[in-house]
Design brief:
Part of the 50S ribosomal subunit. The protein is of the alpha/beta class. Helix content is 31%, strand content 21%. The mean pLDDT is 90.
Length: 232
């Protein structure tokens, strides 16, 4: 078992054993537990009472964080020439089609989000072997396959995130940075949780929100009392 560092011991001492915190208190406490020299990401982990192996219990959705993610999102738009200026004006970092498809086939994936158009998916589709394992493949359900590429870029740059439950029934996503004020962490977390609540499959029985934890990079997780979250 790995030995805890001095900072990790101090962080653990600030969390009461077996205690669940309100979402507001957890949003404040996570800032106190952060001791990295860089601006840590704040993440939320939600264990759901669903069976992801069943297609009718897969939970996937989109949330627009009111205060953004705090990250610089590198966006590639694969589009036809008539849409290139629209994508550039919206703030896309890379814009093109055949040249970038060739780069990706050569192994280049130095982006965070790829947005494309339905009319070019026949070309983009062959990139699945490269993009799929990196969770970069555009998908209509996540809003990354759309004729409105400019709008999609604006939304992604503004804090739109895509999440889905993994094979163990957990949704893990970033909700901001440790440098954010506690109220902004709280409001971002609340937006994600309320969105997940609206996506509850009708076939899911029993307790939907089994557990919620908030943590920052390298910090211990803080258990959130589900009943303290409004609207779920």
């Amino acid at each position: 078992m790995a030995r805890l560092t001095k900072n990790q011991k101090v962080a653990l001492s600030k969390i009461e054993a077996n205690k669940s915190y309100t979402l507001q208190d957890a949003s404040s406490l996570v800032k106190e537990l952060t001791n990295t020299k860089f601006d840590s990401s704040v993440d939320i982990d939600v264990r759901l009472g669903v069976d992801p192996r069943k297609a009718n219990q897969m939970v996937r959705g989109i949330a627009t964080l009111p205060h953004g993610t705090g990250k610089t999102v590198r966006v590639l738009v694969l589009c036809t020439p008539d849409k290139e200026q629209e994508a550039k004006d919206a703030g896309a970092d890379y814009v093109g089609l055949d040249d970038y498809i060739a780069k990706i086939e050569g192994g280049w994936t130095d982006v965070d989000i790829i947005i494309t158009m339905p009319s070019v998916m026949a070309k983009v589709g062959r990139l699945g072997r490269v993009l799929g394992p990196r969770n970069l493949m555009p998908n209509p359900k996540s809003g990354t396959v759309t004729p409105e590429v400019g709008k999609a870029v604006t939304e992604v740059k503004g804090g739109k995130i895509d999440f889905k439950v993994d094979k163990t029934g957990i949704i893990h996503t970033s909700i901001g940075k440790a440098s954010f004020p506690a109220d902004k962490i709280y409001e971002n977390a609340l937006e994600v949780l309320q969105t997940i609540s609206k996506l509850k499959p009708s076939s899911a029985k029993g307790t939907y929100f089994k557990s919620i934890h908030i943590s920052s990079t390298m910090s211990p997780g803080i258990t959130v009392e589900t009943k303290s979250v409004a609207g779920i």
